[in-house]
Amino acid sequence: MKFFVDTADVPAIAELNDLGMVDGVTTNPSLIKKSGRDILEVTKEICDLVEGPVSAEVTATEAEQMIAEGRKLAKIADNIAVKVPLTWDGLKACKVLSDEGNMVNVTLCFSANQALLAAKAGATFISPFIGRLDDINLDGMQLIEDIRTVYDNYGFETQILAASIRTANHVAESARIGADVITAPPSVIKSLASHPLTDKGLAAFLADIKDAGIKIL
Ligand code: G3P
Questions:
Q1: Are 112 and 143 in contact (CB under 8 A)?
Q2: Separation of alpha carbons 206 and 73, rounded Å
Q3: What is the rounded CA–CA span in Å between residue 28 and residue 42?
């Protein structure tokens, strides 16, 4: 499973990248706003920092403008994935940009039907939002399972990029189902290593090391 980091915070990306935990990065207008930086500058810096796909989202809602913005974003670096929302205009932009050889990440996906359309439009990635479905008492993980089934039924190559990941359980469940990628905030990725029994067991080992005077160096 690939780990993408869902942030435009360059130092946070660098820290996880040094641990070998960054296979790509996703941003969106809210994350760019949170960074307080120019979208083109921060996106270029992220593309220079990581080797994997870096998703940068268009701001337009009309297909022709999306295509123009997408072409400009794609020129930033070879590892840019142009992000478009799952609307008919977004699907049209996806078709044109993917036919031109660009990676396209279709985002704001909340149904298997939407994911089916994105695959038919040539999307490289589909971004179903788990957390926002959970927020309204729907089952975000069921959407991941449904898309996995639909894509496998017909051999679609579009990669399932599980997004709106809020917890370690979302990551484990996405992996169990077979999502190709998860994109999560740095805090969630860091939380994956935590377990109280690991802490308890290490404390016991350290106590025994001290009691027994175990030395290696
Ligand atoms: O990549 C999409 C992600 O940033 C949305 O997450 O927590 O705002 O639903 P969230």
A1: yes
A2: 51
A3: 12
Q: Where are the domains of the chain?
A: 2-212
Q: How far is the CA of 131 from the centre of ligand 1 (A)?
A: 7
Distance (Å) of CA 189 to CA 14, 107, 133: 13, 21, 20
pTM of the model: 0.96
For residue 53, what are the CA distances in angstroms to 45, 48, 137, 179? Answer: 13, 11, 32, 16
**Topology of domain 2-212, CATH:** TIM Barrel (3.20.20)
Q: Which residue has the least CA distance to atom 3 on ligand 1?
A: 164
List, for residues 52-106, the tens digit of each pLDDT value. Answer: 999 999 999 999 999 999 999 999 999 999 999 999 999 999 999 999 999 999 9
Please report where in the chains the tokens 């220079």 appear, as a residue. Answer: 48
